[in-house]
Amino acid sequence: MADKRFLRSSITIGYQHNAVLPTASAGLQVEVDLGSGFQTIYTFNKNISPLPTNTAAYFEASEVLRDYLTIAFNGTVTSQSLETRLTFKMYNAYNSTGTVVNTTVYDFYGVDGYSYYEQGANVIVTGTPSAISNREIFLPQNTTGKIPIFSATGFNIFNITATQQTKTIGTDVYKINRICEPKFTPYKITFVNKFGALQDLWLGLLRRDKVAVKSETFKRNIITPTGGYDINQHNQATFNVTGNDSITLNTTFLPEEYNEVLEQLLLSEQIWILENGLTLPIVINTKALDKKTVTNDNLIQYTLDFKYANNKINSIR
After folding, report:
1. Average pLDDT value over all residues in the chain
2. Integer CA distances (angstroms), 142 to 77, 234, 252, in order
3. Contacts of 8 (CB under 8 A, 6+ apart)
4. Eight-state DSSP code of residue 130
5. In the CATH scheme, what is the code of domain 3-125?
6. May I ask the CATH architecture of the domain 183-209+243-308?
7. Alpha carbons 26 and 101: distance in angstroms, whole number
8. Fewest beta carbons within 10 Å, which of 83, 155, 228, 255?
């Protein structure tokens, strides 16, 4: 089964040569499959001081790979990954010429996730573990849901029915909690989590809406040819008026494991909201999270601020 690697964290490719044959340079060929087979997108070369032993060369590949993985979401959750092949070679002459001393090929699928510092370098996902951190899921009454799981090529999406109370996938058991707050309308937030998967989060309590407007003004000449002025004209004129909508949403009461989920939401670069049948891109304005616990806070509930990722006035040109 193919490995999966996180493109938002460093992927360091290299080799330490310990043979007697001196090594003078190293090269890295970067190939990706964009739907019609592998094609080379970058070729790197690095000259190093030739030594008889302990010669090493390394390249960082994630930054160039991430340019070729564009996450798209229109309301339908799909698996999105980048099939990648990195071919690393070491040579006994400069500029990647001469005899090839070592060849190492790395085949994997890149996903738009990341690892934490304490996990160390070059984290690789093998097998089919869960692609979400939580084992409790909150859904409104009579509402379906989805759980992303790693697959051989990215992710598999498992469905939750409108009435399910538990869902077992492999050895993982997910508890399905139903949100019942008749006074409020729940809103579905979808975001790219730390695993690179699209994850849903329902926010089911109070919502507040706000609009912020910016503009520029200048003093305008309204003198008429006769020396007077028209009192119906704007002496102080307004231009470049722009506006942006923002919303405040509240979670339902959550277990402690959702501290990790909300942390991933804050760290996400792509977030959407389902509203009036439309899937709209939003940006999270909340930049800090005081993690609550049952011991310290008894009940765990959060307020989150978002803004829409577009101006109120359509000015796309």
Report:
1. 91
2. 19, 55, 17
3. 62, 66, 112, 113, 114, 196
4. B
5. 2.60.40
6. Beta Barrel (2.40)
7. 9
8. 228
